[in-house]
Design a protein that fits this description.
This protein has about 325 residues and is an alpha+beta fold. The protein is built from eleven helices and 13 strands. A four-stranded antiparallel sheet has the order 2-5-9-7. Strands 6-1-8 form a three-stranded mixed sheet. It has a two-stranded antiparallel sheet with strand order 3-4.
C-alpha cells in the first residue's frame, strides 16, 4: 500500500463484549424503568417526543420495529394488528446491568458495578476479521445475531461514553442497540461489500445494481464500489504528536475502514474451504476464515477437520 493517511493511521481502539444480551420486552424498557429512557440526550434512536398526554405504550408507535416471528427469524413489524402475529419481543438489544432508575444519585455505579462484566479486545488485532464477518453472518436468525454480539459486542448503538458524558477516545463500548438502526446499517454494509466480493471472486452475477448502457459489468462494479466507499468510509481521528489515531463510533465504521484498507493495499482475498465466504489472507497458506475473538483456532478450520473425521469414520477409516 502506498504511504498515505490510512497507512499512517494508528488503530488503538478496543471493543467491549458483555456476557449476555437481552431482547427487551414491551418496546424496550418496562414502565418501571422508563426513567432511563427519559434522560435528555440518551434516549434510543427514533423515539418520538414524550408528553404528559402520551401514554408510555405509544412511545414507539410511529417508529419502525423488528421482532422475532414464530420461526425464530427477525422481521420488520408493520401495523399494530400485524404485531399480534409476533412474539412479545421488541426492538432493542440491551447489555445486562445497564438499566437502572435515574432517581438514584449514584446511577452510574449501579449501571457499571466494579465487578468485571465485559471482555476487551484489540481492534487492531481483529479488524481484518471483523469486516468480512459482518458481511458473512446471516442475521435473519435471532440466534446468529446473539452469537455475533457475544463475540463482538453490539455493532452499533448507545455507548458508555455517552452516559458518562465524555467524548469517546478509543473504546467501542455499546450497551444498547436499536434493531432498526442495526438492520439499516447492515443492509448498507452488505450491499457495499457485495461489489468488493464480486470483484475478488470474479462472480458478477449477483450485483445489487445494473450497469449503465454500454458499461462493462466489471467496470460497473468497480465504479459503484469506489462511489459507495467515498460515502461510507468516514470516521473521526485524533492527533497526538505527529501520529493520527482512529476514533470509531461503532463496529460499522471500523469495518468500512478495514474494507477501505484492504482495497487500497490490494490485499489477498480467498474463499474459505469450509463455509465458502470471502476472507482476507493474513498468513501464508491460510485456507479458512480467521480466528474470532476469544477463540484459539479458526471455527471454520475446526468444523472442516471434524467433518473430514466424521466422513472417514463413516467409510470405515481409522
Amino acid at each position: 500500500m502506498k504511504k498515505n493517511f490510512l497507512s499512517e493511521l494508528k488503530v488503538d481502539n478496543s471493543f467491549y463484549i458483555y456476557g449476555n444480551y437481552e431482547l427487551k420486552e414491551d418496546l424496550f424498557f418496562s414502565e418501571n424503568n422508563m426513567s432511563a429512557i427519559l434522560y435528555e440526550g440518551y434516549a434510543p434512536t427514533k423515539v418520538i417526543p414524550l408528553t404528559k398526554d402520551l401514554p408510555i405504550k405509544d412511545l414507539f408507535i410511529k417508529s419502525p420495529m423488528y421482532g422475532e416471528n414464530i420461526n425464530g427469524q427477525i422481521e420488520r413489524i408493520g401495523s399494530q394488528n400485524e404485531q399480534k402475529k409476533y412474539k412479545n419481543k421488541a426492538a432493542y438489544l440491551v447489555a445486562p446491568k445497564t438499566i437502572t432508575s435515574l432517581e438514584k444519585k449514584d446511577y452510574l455505579k449501579n449501571l457499571f458495578p466494579n465487578t468485571k462484566v465485559t471482555t476487551e479486545y484489540s481492534l487492531d488485532k481483529f479488524g481484518k476479521t471483523l469486516y468480512t464477518e459482518l458481511a458473512k453472518v446471516d442475521f435473519s436468525n435471532f440466534t446468529n445475531l446473539i452469537d455475533f454480539c457475544k463475540t463482538w459486542g453490539l455493532p452499533t448503538g448507545v455507548t458508555v461514553s455517552v452516559l458518562e458524558k465524555r467524548i469517546p477516545v478509543s473504546d467501542i463500548n455499546i450497551i444498547w442497540m436499536s434493531l432498526d438502526d442495526f438492520y439499516t446499517k447492515l443492509h448498507e454494509y452488505q450491499r457495499v461489500f457485495s461489489y468488493f466480493k464480486a470483484l475478488n471472486t470474479n462472480n458478477l452475477s449477483k450485483l445489487p445494481t445494473v450497469p449503465k448502457e454500454g458499461e462493462h459489468i466489471k467496470d460497473h462494479a468497480s465504479r459503484m464500489l469506489e462511489k459507495e466507499m467515498k460515502e461510507k468510509s468516514l470516521f473521526s481521528f485524533k492527533i497526538e504528536g505527529k501520529t493520527p489515531f482512529s476514533v470509531f463510533a461503532d463496529l460499522f465504521e471500523a469495518a468500512y475502514f478495514y474494507l477501505k484498507l484492504s482495497i487500497e493495499s490490494n490485499a489477498e482475498m480467498s474463499l474459505c474451504e469450509n463455509c465458502g465466504h470471502l476472507f482476507e489472507v493474513t498468513h501464508q497458506r491460510r485456507r479458512f476464515c480467521s480466528v474470532l475473538p476469544g477463540r484459539k483456532r479458526s471455527s471454520c478450520e475446526m468444523a472442516y477437520n471434524n467433518r473430514l473425521k466424521k466422513e472417514k469414520k463413516q467409510k470405515g477409516g481409522f
